[in-house]
Amino acid sequence: MSLVKTDESLDGGPDDSDDTLVDVRDLVVGFGDLRAVDGLSFTLKKGAALGLVGESGSGKSTVASALLALHRGTGARVGGAVRVAGVDVQAASEHELRRLRGGKAAMVFQDPLSSLDPYYAVGDQIAEVYRVHVKASRRAARARAVEVLDRVGIADAARRARSRPHEFSGGMRQRALIAMALACAPDLLIADEPTTALDVTVQAQILDLLHTLREETGMGLLLVTHDVGVAAESVDDVLVMRHGRAVERGPVAAVLGAPREAYTRELLGAVPRVEVARVKVPRVGVRDAGVPGVHAPRVRAGVAVPAPVEGGGGEAGADGRGASDGGASGVGASDRGVSGGGVSDGGVPEDRASVAGASVGDSSGGASADGAVGEVVLEAVDLRREFGRGKRRFTAVDGVSLTVRRGETLGVVGESGSGKTTLGRMLVGLLEPTAGSVRYEGRAQSGVRPTVQMVFQDPVSSLNPRRSVGESIADPLRARGERDETRIRGRVRELLERVGLEAAHYDRYPHEFSGGQRQRVGIARALAADPRVIVCDEPVSALDVTTQAQVVALLAELQRELGLALVFVAHDLAVVRQVSDRVAVMRGGRIVEHGLADDVYESPQDPYTKQLLAAVPALDPEVAAERRRARRQLATV
Length: 637
Prior knowledge:
Strand 4 and strand 5 form a beta hairpin. The longest helix has 18 residues, at 200-217. The chain contains 21 helices and 25 strands. By secondary structure, the protein is an alpha/beta fold. The chain folds into three domains: 1-104 and 188-271, Rossmann fold; 106-185, no CATH class; 359-618, P-loop containing nucleotide triphosphate hydrolases (Rossmann fold), CATH 3.40.50.300. The two termini are 37 Å apart. The strands form six sheets. It has a six-stranded mixed β-sheet with strand order 6-7-8-3-9-10, with helices on both faces. The chain has a six-stranded mixed β-sheet with strand order 21-22-23-18-24-25, sandwiched between helices. A five-stranded mixed β-sheet has the order 15-17-16-19-20.
């Protein structure tokens, strides 16, 4: 039985039944000319969990903020009725809202760094929240802070309570925010994208924690996420949103298992599946459906699906316009043989057992620009990178060797801190190795090489906000000595069109683009140097699933056209499987397993690889429960 009422079951007056925790009726939230939420209604019962799922710009985070009246004083226009824990949020005074926020209902935000004060110890911040809502002494408040930190899994909580936020890892900071939310034992926990910035194992730990807390405390949960797999792991019911409206809702197994609406099916189709191997697909267009006049079909796992409708639900740009990317997500290449202890020339696995510091071997094949694998273009030999001095010296990469061939994609996966980003920066030349060497086409290289480029995780921080995107893309051309402005502008316009944008976007600034569009700009800038190798460092980790699929498809399309070699660094194992011919698994600065992607995913040899795969969210709630049990078993081994 669903614990979330549909519109048809709502009768027009507020639901005052004792077990109703959240009652939202005809909610409207507007910003200027943009209506972010448009007539949304739903209820949530005590102890139940509801997932708000949708693309960026669908209005789901706006709904979460409206439950605690966080839009008050911002200029937003809010209409409709919202009741949370018996409080009429729209009519509540500031005093009543202060009692509601943190007391009866608490919120965990996506970015813990922006929610925690960098100056104060984490324990003091939790204690402050507790004292605001509970008449308690400082000693009692500090004791409560230690108690909840311990409850959310912070080891040595009494000592770590005295630490400041920068001394915590990303997962620990998110746990600290959950501890702060739990300090006053709220009836409702609102979690707004709580795992988006976390690697797959830490994400699984946070989801398991939320599941356990619900079982033990009976609190209600409203989970906001663009990741359908996260919703399947965590909630009883799901509400799919688009353009501020409810598209579909119901029990999570019913909605995800047999979706009625085309948009829900499209959203599910964009989710990368760790069970699905890389599929060769025909070449398709990659132009961006989020920009007027730019349309393209999309491909997912080799099956073409319609492009988004005009103004389709993508990311909202700064001006409020829809900005959904309209590329393709299927990628094409057959499995490659791996030598040097990987896979024989015939593609039969040889020795893929756990190997510390092992070399990721070659694959054989002729060179071409149609996806076939060619000669070795990049080689790392016993790379080692250390940071710090003396007792504080830390080894980030420890004896890694690998090769990358023309036209293939090597996926590098691992948790945060595994050394994969440091490895990528050494391959590009942004970091010099402490020991070992990087060879390009057989010759030892040092420093930045135009033929090896990088696409960064955060396009916002890698683009100058004071310069147009066209000028940023032109930088590599000018660095190579090009001085003819006409030729420069012509080449940049060509690159913009190649990545699915428009030539007219030359004079626009980064803030005028959505996240997916900004990542396309970053790819265009990398292409400006005519590279043979592109290292992609978490290029889609901050994007919703549909935009993620479109950016991945763009990279695959460019690889087929240009014969590029790609090194795809990511913590998302499902995405890596969709794009990679070979996969290297890193832990503690070393490669613990490597081989053909299908072999690594279907028959992992190293316990760490098995742990990573068990942490991947599943769309089937029953499979999700099985993986949760598997994670608990692996944790006890």
